TrEMBL record:
Class of enzymatic activity (EC top level): transferase
Single GO MF annotation: thiamine diphosphokinase activity
Database matches in InterPro entries: Thi_PPkinase (IPR006282), Thiamin_PyroPKinase_B1-bd (IPR007373), TPK (IPR053149), TPK_B1-bd_sf (IPR036371), TPK_catalytic (IPR007371), TPK_catalytic_sf (IPR036759)
Superkingdom of origin: Bacteria
Ranges for domain Thiamin pyrophosphokinase thiamin-binding: 141-208
Matches recorded under NCBIfam families: thi_PPkinase
Protein name: Thiamine diphosphokinase
Amino acid sequence: MGAFERRHALIFAAAPETEYGYIRAFLKKHPDALIACADGGLRHARALGLHPDFMISDCDSMPEVEGAEVVRLRPEKDDTDTQGCLREVFRRGCTEATLVCATGGRIDHMLANLSLLEEAYAMGGRLTVLDRQNQIVLHEGGCQKFKMPPEYAYFSLVPLDAVLTGVSIENAKYPLRDAVVTRAGMVTISNEAIADSFSVTIREGRSLVIFSRDWTRVL
């Protein structure tokens, strides 16, 4: 049994962020979350008055380290600090994690962070990427039912593969039935649930499922 067994990890990346209302809302729902920081993510944890349970750092964007457990990395490496942080908390027993402060700033970092949704699934866990307007999860294929979070107005499917086949969407304003969806010319943006939950079937391929809200609804 790992040291973090059955705990939900809240992972702080180092992207720019000044609005922490959505993180406070998450912590109200998950008061026992394990706090993990990837390098400069420590700044965000400190801004919220949080002491990390775990930190991983190569000290390139944050010279200080803090945490009940600290893993130091070399700056010259293949993996990002955030990728390393996710891997380490999963190796220590977590199977569910939420990644915050991960979508602002550099687009290459944002896309790398979104790719961690697939890596988490490959490791047998589940990751959610969360920011003040969006909640992003992975649809790994097959039929999945999603509960529509009341704080969001829309949901979108963004293919990770060039082509998704056998796509069906039920209980939505814009339903689909056994459709082909491609990255070039997507028709699955800004849909709306017409019930508390909706279902998405993908026969072949993987997709992001993005719950979103407009600025006027931001916490």
